[in-house]
Design brief:
Blueprint lengths: L3 E6 L6 H13 L8 E6 L5 H7 L6 E4 L17 H6 L4 E4 L2 H6 L4 H13 L3 E6 L3 H6 L2 H13 L11 E4 L13 H19 L1 H4 L3 E5 L4 H8 L6 E4 L6 H9 L4
Parallel strand pairs: 1-2, 1-8, 2-3, 4-5, 5-6, 6-7, 7-8
The protein binds 2-phosphoglycolic acid.
Length: 254
C-alpha cells in the first residue's frame, strides 16, 4: 500500500507554550502508526527542534518545515535553506502552499527551484497544488493543476518522483469550512495520478502519496481518506486541536 499520511499544518499559529502543550496532548492521545502510515507536524521554524525532541520516541511521527529557500546558503536575510533543515534533522518540507503562492508571490518556477533545493539536501517535499474558486467555476481545474505539476516537478528525474508526496488543496476549501466532496477529491486525485503516470509511468505514479487538504476535520476525514486515490490529508485548522487531529490520524486507511 502507498504511504498514508496525516500532515498537520500549524501555519503561523500558537505560542511556544501552546505548541508544547499541543504536542504533549497529541502524544497523550496515543499515536499508533502502522508500517505504511506517517504523521507529519509542519510547525513554525522556531519550534522545529522543540517539537522534534518531544516526538523523538513516537514511531512514524516527524516534524516538517512549512517552507524553504529557493537558493543555497548566502546573503538572503530572513530565509531558511534546505541545507539548514537537513542539518537540524528535518526530513520533510511543505513547498508551494497556496498561501505562499498568493501572499509571497511564489510562482511555479520559484517552486521548482525550492523542490530542487529540498531534494538536493535529502528533504522530502510535500508539494501543494490546487485551483482557486474562479478556475473551479470555469471547470478548468484539471488543466490548471496539471500546469502546476508540470512547471514545478516535471523537470525531475523520474526516480525522484518515486514515493513523492503531493497535497491537492482546492483554495476555495482552505480555512473556509467548505470541503470538496469526497468524489470531487477522488476525481482530482485520479487526474493527478494519471498526469504523473503519463510522465513517469504507472508503476512509479502508484507509489506517490496524494493528500487532500481543505477543511479536513475529524467528522469528514474517514470518508475523504477512504477514497481510492486519497492517501491522507494536509490539515490546517483542525490540526490545532489534539482531539481532532488524533481522530484524523486514526482515519487513515489501515
Ligand atoms: P484548513 O487548511 O484545514 O484549515 O482548511 C488546510 C491547509 O491550508 O493546509
Amino acid at each position: 500500500m502507498r504511504t498514508q499520511i496525516a500532515a498537520a499544518n500549524w501555519k503561523m499559529n500558537l505560542s511556544i507554550e501552546q505548541a508544547e502543550s499541543l504536542t504533549d496532548q497529541l502524544i497523550a492521545g496515543e499515536i499508533h502508526t502502522s508500517a505504511h502510515q506517517l504523521v507529519l507536524l509542519a510547525v513554525p521554524f522556531p519550534y522545529l527542534l522543540t517539537v522534534k525532541n518531544k516526538i523523538s520516541k513516537q514511531s512514524g511521527v516527524y516534524v516538517a518545515a512549512q517552507n524553504c529557500a529557493s537558493t543555497t546558503n548566502g546573503a538572503y536575510t530572513g530565509e531558511v535553506s534546505a541545507e539548514m533543515l537537513k542539518g537540524m534533522g528535518i526530513s520533510y518540507v511543505i513547498i508551494g502552499h497556496s498561501e505562499r503562492r498568493e501572499y509571497y508571490h511564489e510562482n511555479n518556477q520559484i517552486l521548482a527551484a525550492k523542490v530542487n533545493m529540498a531534494l538536493e539536501y535529502g528533504v522530502q517535499p510535500v508539494f501543494c497544488c490546487g485551483e482557486p474558486l474562479s478556475v473551479r467555476e470555469a471547470g478548468t481545474q484539471n488543466s490548471y493543476v496539471e500546469t502546476q505539476l508540470k512547471e514545478s516537478l516535471f523537470h525531475l528525474d523520474k526516480e525522484k518522483l518515486r514515493h513523492f508526496i503531493i497535497a491537492y488543496e482546492p483554495i476555495w476549501a482552505i480555512g473556509t469550512g467548505k470541503t470538496a466532496t469526497s468524489d470531487q477529491a477522488q476525481d482530482m486525485h485520479a487526474h493527478i495520478r494519471k498526469v504523473i503516470a503519463d510522465y513517469v509511468g504507472g508503476e512509479i505514479a502508484d507509489t506517490v502519496s496524494i493528500l487532500y487538504g481543505g477543511s479536513v476535520k475529524a467528522a469528514n476525514a474517514a470518508e475523504i481518506f477512504g477514497k481510492k486515490d486519497v492517501d491522507g490529508g494536509l490539515v490546517g485548522g483542525a490540526s490545532l486541536v489534539a482531539s481532532e487531529f488524533n481522530v484524523i490520524i486514526n482515519s487513515l486507511k489501515q
